[in-house]
Amino acid sequence: MPRRKAAVIAAPRDTSSDEVALRALYHKDPLRILPNALWKTVARLQSLECRFIDDAGSVTGVELREPGKLLIYGTRTQDPLKAASVKLDGVPTVYIHNDFVAPLAPWFDRKEAFFRLVHTGSELPLRATVPGYTIRQVDTTTELPLVATILHACYDTSTPGTNEIAMWTKRPVFAPRAWLWIIDRKEKRPIALGIAETDRLTGEGSLEWIQVLPAFRSLGLGTMLVQELVYRLEQKVAFTTVVGQMKNPCEPEHLFRRCGFAGRDVWWVLHR
Ligand SMILES: CC(C)(COP(=O)(O)OP(=O)(O)OC[C@H]1O[C@@H](n2cnc3c(N)ncnc32)[C@H](O)[C@@H]1OP(=O)(O)O)[C@@H](O)C(=O)NCCC(=O)NCCS
C-alpha cells in the first residue's frame, strides 16, 4: 500500500517578545506607529514578520511584513530619509505614514489617505442631544440583520453582512455598551448606528463604524452618536482612536475633531 504523506503543520511561532516590544512602542506614539488600533495588529502577529528599527540605541519604529502581501512601516522619527531604507521587494500593499510616503508613492498606482485621530479624554465631551431622537443599545442577540441593513443603506461601497457582523461580537474587544442606535422617536426606528471596541489590555478604545441614514444627516446626530460613544468608552479606556478616509464627501474628520479628537497623522495605503 502506498504510504500516505504526513501533513506538515508548522508549530505556532512564539510572538510574545514581538508583542511586548510593539506594545511599548505603540504606547509612546500610537498614531505614528500603526495605521490601526493595536489589537488588530497583535491579532495577526503570527503571520507578520517584525523588524524593530533601532536608532542610536533606542527602538523608534517597526517594519511589519506579510511576505508577498503587505508591509506596514511605522516610526516615531520624522526624518524622511529613514524611509529610503524600506525595501519594497514587489510587495503589493504598503501602509506608510505621510512623512515617508513621497519616495515610495511613484511605485504604486492606487493611493488612499486616511486620517488617524485620538481622543485622550482630558476633556470629557459634552453629550449633545437632538430633540426627537434618543440613544439605545443595539440588542446584538436579535438585531444583527438590522445592523447589516443600516450599514448597507449608509455607504455606496459594499458593507459586511450579518454573518461577518456576528463574528465581531465574538472578539475579545467586543463592547456591547458601545453598539448604539439613534432612534427616531416619531417613526420608532433606528436611523443611525455607532459601533466601537475596547481593548482593555492596551487601554484603547476605537470607533469602528459611525453612520447616519442619508435622510437624517446634518441634524447633529453624528455628533450625538460620537459624543455618547466617547463618553461610554472613556470610563473604560485611557484613549480612543479613529481612522477614516480623507477623501470622503461627508467629511467625517470634521465631525471627529468637533467631538474632541485631535492629531495630525495621516497614513497612506499604497496598492499596485
Ligand atoms: C459622517 C456622518 C456620520 C456625519 O453625520 P451627521 O449626522 O451628518 O453629522 P452632524 O450633523 O453631527 O455634523 C457634524 C459636523 O459635520 C459637518 N458636516 C456634516 N455633513 C457634512 C458634509 N457632507 N460636508 C461637510 N461637513 C459636513 C456638520 O456641518 C457639522 O459641523 P459643524 O457643527 O461645525 O457645522 C454622516 O455623513 C454619514 O453617515 N456618512 C456616511 C458614513 C461615513 O462616511 N461615516 C464615517 C466613517 S469614518
Automatic annotation (TrEMBL):
Stretches assigned to the N-acetyltransferase domain: 133-272
Matches recorded under InterPro entries: Acyl_CoA_acyltransferase, GCN5-like_dom, GNAT_dom
Gene3D superfamilies: 3.40.630.30
UniProt key word Transcription regulation: no
PROSITE patterns membership: GNAT
Molecular-function GO term, any one: acyltransferase activity, transferring groups other than amino-acyl groups
Statement: the UniProt record of this protein carries the keyword Transferase: yes
Domain of life: Bacteria
Record's keyword terms, sorted: Transferase
SUPFAM superfamilies: Acyl-CoA N-acyltransferases (Nat) (SSF55729)
Protein name: GNAT family N-acetyltransferase
Organism the protein comes from: Candidatus Cryosericum terrychapinii
